[in-house]
Amino acid sequence: MKQRINVLVLNEKDTVGVAMDDLRAGDIGVYLLAGKKYEVNVVQDIPIYHKMALTAMLEGEHAYKYGQEIGRVTLDITAGQHVHSHNLISIREGVNE
Amino acid sequence: MKFRGYKRPDGKVGIRNQVLILPTCSCSSETCRIVASQVNGTVSIVNQNGCAQVKGDLDITKQVLAGLAANPNVYGTVLIGLGCENAQPDDMVKLIQTKTNKPLKRLVIQEEGGTIATVNKAVQYARQLVEDASRLQKEEFDISELLVGTECGGSDPTSGIASNPVVGNLSDRLIDLGATSILSETTEFIGAEHILAAQAATPEIGQQIFDIVKRYEVHIKNVGESLRDGNPSPGNKAGGITTLEEKSLGCIHKGGHRPIVEVIDYAHIPTKRGLVIMDTPGYDVASVTGMAAGGCQVVVFTTGRGTPTGNAITPVIKITANQRTYQTMLDNIDFNASPVIQGEKTIEAMGAELLQEVIDVANGKVTKAEALGFNETAINRLCNYV
User: Fold this and answer.
1) CB neighbour class for A5 (10 Å; exposed up to 12, middle 13-18, buried from 19)
2) Per-residue pLDDT at A3 exceeds 90
């Protein structure tokens, strides 16, 4: 069955993608990278334009979007999870405190 | 490419032909409002500052006020002061005259004998300036005369993915045609300044970019506050932006890909053509005000959540790539970039369409914010009033 692309990945270094639709737990997240199609099982609801983990990330690791560091992971994350304020924090301001 | 505009005696070119009723301070703002309400063709702003300010803050306020009077969209200015304020009317006249030789009238409420006497005289001055302005005919000018400000406000992830890159493409196109584009919002360079520094035309300019970001971070820290408490905003977060770094990496796309040729202070006028950085706050209204004072004839403003922001003298073109927002905030949005998100159009194609929109607005097309008569004004500040 042809799966519709519903996740946008901006750079090959990225560990999060952007939901291009409201995703539901149980959906299959489909994204393109360098012309190749990849699939991730969506494990929780993710609102449109919010971030979905493409891979597992451990607490303390940095998450990547735009090929750049966007924050530090504060709780272990599995692929297909929603990545937002509950499990990701600014790196810069954390250092400043 | 060409547009039709108004030639000013200082050599600059405006795309609107306003008479500005300009308050030196908060205490003359209401008088200016009354004057502007009496004469069609005039605009006034609410100036919250101009008095009870430390020197650094006063300098910022004066630069903004003088810059607005010098903006090429302004035909001439009626400056109204109270008399006892920090931003002394005579000092303001001198500062405005260092930037422009356009028509300027000065009135001081405490000299005229109160508000009604001041309004009486100011209305006569304003009416004459409007009549003089109305005689001016538009002429054709090269697009290289345009100074375009770029701004984002009420951002969501579609801003960084689509509308900011479309504005970046517009910026590249403008610069390739000899015009100038300003990238603003220093707080939203945080986490992305290394990318901008690498885009600087010289290592010195690259260092200036690091310096203005550092200065901002130190400033906030010195007053015991954290940027995180205000930025990203609740709306940014609800839309899906988590951290300031993520917001910044989306924000800087507005600058496009040409070399950064100059870094200027808030509300100062660029001295070079090309891609210029202005050191402004992430607060969109204050940033737009700073760029209007820096001489921008038009501002292109991206949004994800949808915002109404306009400006008294500089048309603000609102653009979103969020299709839902385009539909729900149609009253306030001028340009739909959501075809980029839908994969129906490329960033390059929409950049070309946005350039045409800028030309159309330069030629006189009225933006949504203009039609609604919006004149939001905010002047950046360093510290408490004194």
Assistant:
1) middle
2) no
Residue B82, sorted as left (phi over 0), alpha (psi -120 to 50) or beta, turns out to be: alpha
Domains of chain A: 7-90 (2.30.130.110)
pTM: 0.96
Q: Is the pLDDT of residue A95 over 50?
A: no
What pLDDT, on a 0 to 100 scale, did the predictor assign at position A2?
60
Q: How far are the Cα atoms of B198, B241, B247, B274, B321 from residue B161, in angstroms, in the given order?
A: 21, 12, 11, 24, 9
For residue B62, give the 3-state DSSP assignment: helix
Chain B residues with CB-CB distance to A84 below 8 A: 237, 240, 242
From chain B, the residues in CB contact with A32 under 8 A are: none
pLDDT tens across B93-128, in order? 999 999 999 999 999 999 999 999 999 999 999 999
Q: Do B226 and A93 touch (CB under 8 A)?
A: yes
CB contact under 8 A, A68 and B158: no
Using a CB-CB cut-off of 8 Å, the residues of chain B touching A83 are 242
Q: Which two tokens stand for residue B147?
A: 């100074």
Q: How far is A20 from chain B (nearest CA, A)?
A: 8
Q: What is the pLDDT of residues A53-67, one digit of tens each?
A: 999 999 999 999 999
B161 contact residues in A (CB cutoff 8 A): 8, 10, 18
ipTM: 0.95
Element (H, E) at B289: helix B284-293
Cβ contact A68–B249 (<8 Å): yes
Q: Residue B101's pLDDT is what? A: 98
Nearest-CB residue to A90 (from B161, B243, B341)? B243
* pLDDT for residue A96: 44
Q: How far apart are CA B45 and CA B63, in angstroms?
A: 15
Segment B324-329 mean pLDDT: 97
| Nearest neighbour of A91 by CB, restricted to B158, B217, B245 | B245
